[in-house]
Amino acid sequence: MKVVLQRVSGAGVTVEGTKIGSIGKGFLLLLGVCDTDTREITEKMADKICKLRIFQDENGKTNLSLADVGGELLVVSQFTLYADCKKGNRPSFIKAGSPALAEELYEYMVEQLKNRGNKVEHGSFGADMKVELVNDGPFTLVLDSQEICASN
């Protein structure tokens, strides 16, 4: 599982001209799933996302979590995070998870984030979406479950 996490002051997602999700201060998550991902991996990634301390405290240090600042989440499916661009000029997406698994884990991620007490908005799986954001910082992280969930 790969997540591009962007700290935002606001973000929204539109499908066919209709805004279907929007947030204020918080995280925009672009979520990619591969065929080896599981619910257990999804839970660990949700924990990591919720516990990250990347908001500034009163001293300007990145020391506060999403909960500390009352932040919100916008989750958007993004299979292109598994693009393989090694050969040629046209990306291959064979490393991306099957649509059935990807949709299941995408929905499970939304559920897991909500279960941790967060306000969560989301896109529409498989739809042609337009995503807007104001990246705060800018502050962008790439989270890879192979690193986050690896046994040490």
Describe this structure as you would to a colleague.
It contains three helices and eight strands, in the order βββαβββαββα. It is an alpha/beta fold. The protein has helices spanning 39-51, 99-115, 145-148; strands spanning 2-15, 18-23, 26-32, 55-56, 62-64, 72-77, 119-122, 129-144. The chain starts with a strand and ends with a helix. α1 crosses α2 (99-115). The strands form two sheets. Strands 1, 2, 3, 6, 7 and 8 form a six-stranded mixed β-sheet that branches. A two-stranded antiparallel sheet has the order 4-5. The mean pLDDT is 96.
Number of strands: 8
Q: What shape does the CA trace take?
A: globular
User: What is the rounded distance between the termini?
Assistant: 18 Å
| Protein structure class | alpha/beta
Per DSSP, the total helix count is: 3
Give keywords:
alpha/beta, 8 strands, six-stranded mixed beta sheet, two-stranded antiparallel ribbon, 38% strand, globular, 152 residues
In short:
This protein has 152 residues and is an alpha/beta fold. It has helices at residues 39-51, 99-115, 145-148; strands at residues 2-15, 18-23, 26-32, 55-56, 62-64, 72-77, 119-122, 129-144.
Strand and helix layout:
Elements: E1 2-15, E2 18-23, E3 26-32, H1 39-51, E4 55-56, E5 62-64, E6 72-77, H2 99-115, E7 119-122, E8 129-144, H3 145-148
Parallel strand pairs: 3-6, 6-7
Antiparallel strand pairs: 1-2, 1-3, 1-8, 4-5
Helix pairs in contact: 1-2
